[in-house]
Amino acid sequence: MKNVVRVWLVVALVLAFLPSLASAEGSNTPSSTSGSSRLQALARGADVLGIEPSAVYDGEALVNASGGVSRGAAYLGAFRVQLLFDADRGFGWRGASFFASVLQTHGGNPSDLVGDAQGTSNLAAPPGAQLYEAWFQQNLVSNRFSVLAGRYDLNSEFYRLQSAGLFVNSSFGTGPELGQSGQGGPSIFPNTSLGARLSLKPARGVVLRVALLDGVPVSRPTGSPGLFAGSDGLLLVAEQAFLNRSSDVRRTVNPRLRIGRNSGLRPYRHKFAVGGWCYTARFDDLSQRQPDGRAARHIGSSGAYLIADALLRGSSAVQSAQVNVFVQVALGDWRVNRFGFYTGAGVVVSGLIPALANDELGLAVAVARNSSHYLDLQRDNAVPVSGSEASLELTYLFQLGQHLALQPDLQYVLRPGSDPTLSNALVTALRFELHT
To answer: What is the rounded distance in angstroms from the CA atom of residue 393 to the CA atom of residue 411?
Structure first.
């Protein structure tokens, strides 16, 4: 009960400050004007040098209202400080750029209350601070070919859909068949790996990407950092994407943020992509045993995914109403991973309220099926288990000025953790984002 009170106190404080934040956006008092002018002058100076700093804070107050492991509340948040340096503008190095991001995460894990396996909140992460990304990118041949090297988040480019990015459940970012694979997961939030990525645009609207990374994130499951240890192996990911872009689309400055429809990704009308991934390390089979009783070993682990996002109604221009639908279908390695099959789908309606041109309303479902070897393991250990877990999510995002977004969210989790002894969970949340 005390946790619930604390969470809603945080929500109340955020809501209490909204009027002052909104009024500050349009304030014309001398003090605010002079302060704003100084900040604008600094921003213009940094822009001339090719420097684009930014800071983003995401917070979420969540309540498991019924079902799951236990009723209760949690607050969690992530603070990111980012710096993009355009070397072309800075000192004439054409096509070169540097990016660095520091991440600080804090708060509880909602899945401890819900008992789900997919991840009720994509902000959930162990508390602490770390270097999240640090990479160099060189674009060549009129930006048709690109090489990137460093510490890199795969999901910033791979397995990514604009419409799916609205939702809070982790599966709508990277599906659980890949997101929970390997030793400590692939190179995605909150733990990334060191490696390289090649990108080629052989024709208009066609993008081929290939990434080769350390098979284990820098922050190891043991808690200590590491790079390319002998048992790590490598992770290879490839994706072919086909996009249809509109000529009237407005590009935004920062390629890393999502605040409603002013997200940093360049908008498209339609996208279809197919990808595959493969680890080279050795993995224990979940259920099969060798004659001596040890787990059978497999060289490598792999999977594949297909994703699509389509504009059904309206224009992809920022100020017009539109309806988008998306689909995710994926296969995991049923021998060594918990999830062998995943599918997700949803619809997003944007621009519902004319006064809030960037608002979005979304409804989506994510279904993760346990692999046959995982089911065998649970049954061998007399652990109650069902075949799948499903999550229904209804969410609404709207912006207040240029620096604040609010997102109330409702999720209904069926068979949390695929545990038949747990009742379905009803989860309510309020997420907000502040950014410079």
So the answer is: 4
